[in-house]
Specification:
Helix content is 83%, strand content 0%. It is built from five helices and no strands. Helix 3 crosses helix 5.
Length: 141
């Protein structure tokens, strides 16, 4: 009977060691997955900031930003693509009105600078007065 108990004890010890090793391997895999996820999130944030900044650099920069954002969509990049498109369209439309057209360029530059500063700081602050409309109108971008 004692040999039988000894065999059971040895088997239990082997099973415990195997379970402990399996748990350690699983913990290592989870740690690696978390590290990979953190790296991906960091890269996405960096990419979103880059897209947001490029979107403010002329209309050609805006087109480049759209192409970059389509490859790897980020909330920050999409937000500022919509904001800058709205500012560009607003400046164009205001430029068509004879008296207001004189001030349209100044208004557009001020709005772009404000938006650019927020993009650099990674803050999604809408353009005053019309920014929320831009987000609604261009939500497909």
């Amino acid at each position: 009977m004692s040999d039988e108990n000894k065999d059971l004890g040895d088997k239990a010890e082997e099973a415990f060691d195997k379970a402990k090793e399996t748990a350690k391997d699983a913990a290592d895999e989870v740690k690696d997955a978390i590290d990979d996820t953190k790296e991906t999130i960091k890269n996405d944030a960096d990419n979103g900031k880059m897209v947001a900044i490029i979107a403010h650099l002329t209309f050609i920069g805006w087109i480049v930003a759209i192409i970059m954002n389509n490859n790897n969509k980020t909330a920050l990049g999409s937000y500022y693509i919509r904001q800058t498109l709205g500012i560009f369209i607003l400046a164009f439309l205001l430029g068509l009105i004879p008296v207001i057209g004189c001030f349209a360029a100044i208004i557009a530059v001020v709005l772009l600078v404000m938006s650019f500063i927020n993009a650099i700081n990674e803050k999604m602050v809408p353009t005053p007065v019309v920014g929320q409309y831009f987000q609604d109108w261009f939500k497909s971008l």
